[in-house]
Amino acid sequence: MPPPTPTAFDAYKQTQHFGVLDGMRAIGVVLVIFDHYGGEHLKFLSGWLGVHVFFVMSGFLITTLLLREQEKRGQVSLTAFYVRRCFRILPVYYLILLIVTIQTKALGGLIFADVLYRYVEQPFISFGKRILQSRNFSSSKLNSPITSSA
User: Fold this and answer.
1) Distance of CA 56 to the CA centre of its chain
2) Are both 37 and 92 inside the same structural domain?
């Protein structure tokens, strides 16, 4: 009997790099950047859409990793999955933290303190205020049936 032919699902599970996601990631980044820094004339480009693009891509990639683990080991261990994520993310995180700490101690302060405030802290605070002032996460400009009055 001849071996079974690989299905599209088998090919998907064997794929190591999904090139199309690079384009989707770029679109998501551009949408978020335009929302934060594009000015009023670019507000129609919803940064929330860019965030949702990242959520969908993350779900797709995480599902792919878990399917591969199940096929390889016969089961999925969420503990092992999160340990692998930590070993991938935390070294870079701690490296950046170390660099900023050394730079701060050596120079007596952050070089980019104004940049950090302007582009990180201030938008984050502004975002929090918008969330607290709104009834839900939808934009008031969308005229959603949930938010519009009858």
Assistant:
1) 9
2) no
Of 40, 59, 77, the domain-final residue: 77
Q: Please, which residues have CB within 8 angstroms of residue 103's CB and are 6 or more apart in sequence? A: 110, 111
Distance separating the N- and C-terminal Cα atoms of the chain: 67
Residue 111 lies in domain:
86-136
Whole-number Å distance between alpha carbons of 104 and 90: 21
Query: pLDDT digits over 63-106, tens only?
Result: 988 988 898 899 999 888 889 989 998 899 888 888 877 877 77
The pair of three-digit structure tokens given for residue 129, joined into one six-digit string: 């205020």
Residue with tokens 């998907």: 12
Predicted TM-score of the model (pTM): 0.56
What's the chain look like in SS3? Answer: CCCCCCCHHHHHHHCCCCCHHHHHHHHHHHHHHHHHHCCHHHCCCCHHHHHHHHHHHHHHHHHHHHHHHHHHHCCCCHHHHHHHHHHHHHHHHHHHHHHHHHHHHHHCCCCCHHHHHHHHHHHHHHHHHHHHHCCCCCCHHHCCCCCCCC
